[in-house]
Each structure stands twice: as C-alpha cells, then as structure tokens.
Amino acid sequence: MDHLHGRYLTDGWHEARASFETVSPATGEPVGRAADCGLDEGRQAIEIAWAAFERWRTTTAFERAGVLRRWHGLMLEHLDELARLMVREMGKPLREARGEVAYAASFVEWYAEEGKRTYGSWVPTHAAHKRLLAIRQPVGPTYAVTPWNFPAAMLTRKAAPALAAGCSMIVKPAEQTPFTALRLGELWAEAGGPPGTLQVLPALDPVPLTRAMMDDPRVRKITFTGSTEVGRLLYRQAADTIKKLSLELGGHAPYLVFDDADLERSVREVVACKFRNAGQTCVCTNRIYVQEGIHDAFVAAFARAVGDLRVGDPMSEDTDVGPLVDAQGLAKVEDHVADALARGARAVVGGGRREGLYFDPTLLVGVTQGMKLLEEETFGPVAPVLRFATEDEAIARANATPYGLAAYLYTNDLARAMRVAEALEYGIVGVNDGVPGVAHAPFGGVKQSGIGREGGPWGIEEYLETKYVSLGIG
Q1: Among 260, 277, 276, which Cα is nearest to 434's?
Q2: Cα distances (angstroms) measured from residue 30 to each of 6, 8, 326
Q3: Structure pTM?
Q4: Is the four-CA dihedral 264, 443, 256, 336 of positive or negative sign?
Q5: 248 is catalytic
Q6: Active site residue 186
Q7: For the segment 181-225, what is each residue's pLDDT rounded down to a tens digit?
Q8: Active-site hit among 282, 284, 454, 462
C-alpha cells in the first residue's frame, strides 16, 4: 500500500502537493498519508474526465463489459487484501469487511452484464414517411462522493453502472478511507480501464474539490452518499448547471416486531440489522418497536443475544463489533445514551464506552418520545426497544420521521406483511429480513432520505439520457 501514499489517480498516478494523515480507529496508529486534492486538481480532473468520456462512450457495451469483468475478477483475487485495508482504515470487523468486498464486486459483475441491456425503443410512427426511435446514451462525466462506512461497496455501486453506461467518473472518497478507493482505482487500471475513466481524488476538505465539479457544466451527474444536510447543499449547488442527481442520505430505520413473530429468528434478524459495522450504516435500525404480547420475551432474548456479541480488535476473526470510526462518532453515541438515561430510559445491556473508540453494544428500554435517539440517527451500537399495541399504531410511529430510507418488520402473517410493507413510507422494506441489500435490487430512499436509486436496472438508468430520433425516409 505504500505506493498509494501521497498520490492520486487521474490519467495516471500523480504526487499531491499536500497530504494528510489517516489513523486506525482501532489502534490509533497511522495508516498512511493521503493525497489532499483541491480546486486545481479538480479542474484538471474534469479536463481529463471529459477527454476520457469522449473516447469511452464510443466503445461498445461488450468492450466495456470485458473491462468490468476483469475488474470483478481482480477484486475477488485481492479480496483479503482489500478487506484488511478496510479494517485498518475504518475498523470494520474482518469477517464483515470480506463480505463487503464480495458485495462490492457483485455490483461490478452485475453491471458488466446490465450495460449490454440498455435497450432503446422503436416507437410506432404517426406518418408513413417517418420512423421514430428512442436511444439511450451516457449522460457524461460524473462526480461521486462516497462515505467511509462502506468504502468499497459505495464506490462500485456508483462507478460500475456509470462505467458500464459509457460515462467517466471522478471519485472523492471519504477522508477516513482514501486508500481503499485508491486501491480499487488501481485495480480498474490493471483490468484495462482506460486512463481517466475512473479517477480517485482524496481530499481532507471536500469543499474546494467539489466546488470545481459543481461549477463546471461538463460534469453532468452528481452521486452522493452521506448526510441529509450535505445532500441539501449539493442539491442547491447542482441547480446552477442543472446536473442529474442521485442522493442517498440519512435514515432513521424502524423495525416492527409483531406478536406472531418467531422469537429466535426475529432476534437474530434484528441483531444482524442493528449491530453490523457497530451500528454505523444508514440502514441499521434505529428504533425497535415490539408488540406488547411478545415485548418482554423479546427483550429477554434480545438482551442475551446483545450480551453475547464480541467486542474487540476488528482484525480478529472472532470480533462482532469493532470501534466507532472517530471521536466525533463516539461522542454522538455517548450523548444519545446519556440523554436517554437522564430522561428515564434504562440500559438492560451495555450503556457505556470502553477504552479507545469502542462503545458497548447497548439495549435500552423505557425509551420515550423526545429523546435524541428517537429524533436523530445515532450511528452506533445502541438499540432502543419500545412497546406498541396495534398495527396502525406501529405504522404511524414508524412513519413519524422526515426520513424514509429503510424500514423492517417481522411477522408470520402474510396479509399483515403486505399491508405494513405497503404502508411504510420508505424506499426499502425488509420483511423478516434484516439485511436486504443485493446488487440487483433498487436501493434508495424517499422524503429526506434522498432521490434516485442504485442497484439493478434502476441504477444504470441514473447514468443514461434518452434521445429521440425522428427519421424521415421520403
């Protein structure tokens, strides 16, 4: 990895004029010095992206698919290396990190094939001397801002459909996790990706780099995964040059567990949903509502499962929960728990921090409206359990938020499953499934959780324009 230090990828590797240090959240030790790109590097990258796009768009979908397939193969070949790099950068437990690399590679595999299916249409004509066509073409150079919590998968979920469609892409990875993105860019080049088609520009301060992208009309598409606050800002900035947008923003996912749920299986699904990546995903459940008939039994079983989670070194094969990504994230978790306890909640399991950036997997009961963790996304290993009486009450409480990314429910009643899934105001609903994400399904939110979809055929639509061709034949 040493060759990635202080460098960024455009049409080749460049030494940055400035750099910044990244550290491991697990050990506090330096991971490396990352290139710190700004306005000038951004403007240079746009020139390169435009030239690369004009060449890449002329290749066939089958040629592009060949490069993507080779990229997919290299990602799997280097799976353990990428996973360990991710663990060092952001503290994800090694078993989860390996799973993420496989998940990231699955987007590349899917879009290698889906790029060959961006069909147009032959439109019935209104006049005998005309033929009408609708064709699909790449939107143009794109700019992606990716988060630290899925440094591999969020890059490929954006880059694979863009590249398959014939777009070029500039990626600004999160400042906590630049090296995973740089290594993926290196593997793209090794797979035969033409210079400039996938550029990776780390930055400690994203504002100058992003300003270059937002101001230039040649950057036709912005894709961002991150907070709603930053998403709103990008939405406003994109208006001046009328860019296409995909925004995957914050969430506040409810999990509804009904009386007829299988106790053991529902606990297992809620644990998987809540505690993966130490609760640091935008689709982790933030509120668990359990129907009153099963509430006490669920809390007892859930407490045993939470208490059994192994906290520790994320490089260990046995670790379930690693550290929070940084001191700011830990402080937010501490604040939410302290606020809840001060207002009358009770910690059945956990409730405190450990040495370093670790926080105990925590189960809270007695949680009431007005507590911070019911109003804000906690982004940590804290599970508040609340009681409800009726189906209508559960739906109303689940929907009482400006966010609408993911929601979950557990029931063995098929009719209820359909009713509740349809009534929940969310872009993703897991029914008896706490981890529903796959490459070939649509991922995205409603309300203030974003616009657009990633994954499946919906994902590549975000990188295509429709052109109408009217052909007179005399």
Answers
A1: 276
A2: 14, 19, 13
A3: 0.97
A4: positive
A5: yes
A6: no
A7: 999 999 999 999 999 999 999 999 999 999 999 999 999 999 999
A8: 282
